[in-house]
Amino acid sequence: MKLALVLIGLCALAAADAVDDTFYKHQTQVLHLVEHIYEPISSHYEDLIYIKKTYDPLQHLDLFKDGEQVKHFVHDVTHGKFLAHDEIFNIFHPQHRRQMIYLFEILYGAKDFDTFFNMAVWARDHMSPRMFLYAFSVAVLHRADCKGITLPPAYEITPDMFLTTDVMRKAYQAKMTAQKTVIPMKFTGSIKNPEQRVAYFGEDIGINSHHSHWHMDFPFWWKRSYDITKDRRGELFFYMHHQMVNRFDAERLSNFLPQVEPLDWHHEIEEGFAPAAMYFNGQEFPMRPDGMHFHDLPWFTVKDTEEYEDRIRDIIAKGYVKAKDGHVVFLNGTEGIDVLGLVVESLDHDFNSHYFGRLHLNAHVLLSKITDPEQKFGTPPGVMEHFETATRDPAFFRLHKHIDNLFKMHKEMLSPYTKEELDFPGVIVDAVKVVGKSEDSTANQIVTFFDESHINLGNMWAHTPEKVGIEVTTKRLNHESFKYVITATADKDTEGIVRIFLSPTYNWFGQEITLQDGHWGVIEMDRFPVKLTAGENVITRSGKKSVVTIDEPMSFAEIHKAVADKDATHFHKEFRHCGFPHRLLVPKGRPEGMHYKLMVVITDYHKDVVVPDMDVEHMDKLQSVGYCGVMEGKIPDGKPMGFPFDRPVPCEETFITKNMKFVDITVKTRV
């Protein structure tokens, strides 16, 4: 039983013997290693300096899974064959990616923590900083002896990837003049650009961090030969990006903008984008003017991308794909979406990867290099070539709407769910209500507002006097606390899974959105197990406990304090860095109120759960499983992600069963 809980990614407090002095030592070492990432290891950390000066990987080859690999790595790094320190690491660049994977496999294959950490210290100052940081972070997230270790927020480790150029320059001035400074950061664009109305969403540091961490938990380059299996990773790729697009559409409607249009390989991209950001080496992120068209690149063309996409459309239309060994895999079952996600993201799979190409990867690169496709001017990578910056460009959501339409094409070819598949016999959802935090709050109304987040830049540069506090403030969307109150009747003691979704009531034209048209655009708010007793049940669930979100991450300073205090409540053995920021769970809405449908469905726990011995209490403790799945083992909920709104709804009247309840709510933003 204990082993099963570990495998499913239980978000519980680490066992007492796990959060001990050794754990705190390891947590501190990891923190020190990622501080001032663009500068050499600080002389303040004598233990790291000692390792740096004395550790020789070639003297410890027996402590790695592949000693020969270590020998080749050390030779290539010390002979200048790896990316130089001041060059920009780009995960979409094949050579950069190969070099990063080389280091990751060595770190991941170290036989104990000390070997892992010593090797990381050796590599840190020999390599491009962000290449090292990426490989090291993915290793920390996946090594068994690093469970519970918390990485600081990405925007504190490499703030240049999250903040604008003017902010970074002002911060540097403050550092050089030793002046305490608070710098307000504005969103990019101007009132002349309609897309600026939703910049607060795509440029949110939490969204950027979530997207980055998701792709570290589920790297597109992950090999099945590694000893961790990524359950339903193809379906997770589809669903996480699908939900991000749906959330973006909801923000657009909140700001009187139409839902985002998918990109077309042969139509101009009407909206330009100026990131107003700068790399650590002084190069500016390239901007994209209005009205740009896609162009061929020297190593692949727009036509190549179209052909790969046509091949994917072909297997969707046929309903099957052939594996490398020739056997046929049908797509029209529940698992089809996972197979399709593997193919679209070009993950390590059983199908002909050369035939299907790298649609997702190539699309990001085509969009990124649109202003300098021949690399005539040596333009650095655009925001689309980094997961931590991609969502800042509104075209990211247009690109993923295009890709999402492939998955929609597949889902629309599946048969609608039958009454038997939708119903939970003996269970009736009688009433649903949303209640605010205060006694005088309006029922079925959620209030949103903007507040300030503070980003501490003390980690950006070494040797900054402690008395000099350099902070950045940025406005971010948030919402008042609320809870769901669900009344359900059961004819016997049983267990269920409550699934909660949100959908705009009206489209951009002010027309009511039918379930037939709107089911694909629903936003998952929560999903949790519940015990039902015979008779009436009142289920109360705080919005804060949403299975799709995580709380604000601990800062460098907060992690250091928790370690110094040996406060085990801050460290969880199955802590997840991946998760949608909770403050963005609810769309902004409008000052006068925006109408939504809140849809609650209770399904049969015993039919849905696929992990043996999984009980309600344990499943309810899983963190951010909605968009981020589990790191190892199986995702407990076996239903297709988005169920029951992932398939066509031919008729609303016949679709709605007694175990469902739809209510009208209002989302009102506080001005």
TrEMBL record:
GO terms for cellular component: extracellular space. One of its GO terms (molecular function) is nutrient reservoir activity. The keyword Repressor does not apply. It comes from the Eukaryota. Residues 393-404 form the Tyrosinase copper-binding domain. Residues 1-18 form the signal peptide. SUPFAM superfamilies: Di-copper centre-containing domain, E set domains, Hemocyanin, N-terminal domain. InterPro entries: Di-copper_centre_dom_sf (IPR008922), Hemocyanin/hexamerin (IPR013788), Hemocyanin/hexamerin_mid_dom (IPR000896), Hemocyanin_C (IPR005203), Hemocyanin_C_sf (IPR037020), Hemocyanin_N (IPR005204), Hemocyanin_N_sf (IPR036697), Ig_E-set (IPR014756). Belongs to the tyrosinase family. Hemocyanin subfamily. This is Hemocyanin subunit 2. It comes from Perla grandis. The lineage of its organism: Eukaryota, Metazoa, Ecdysozoa, Arthropoda, Hexapoda.
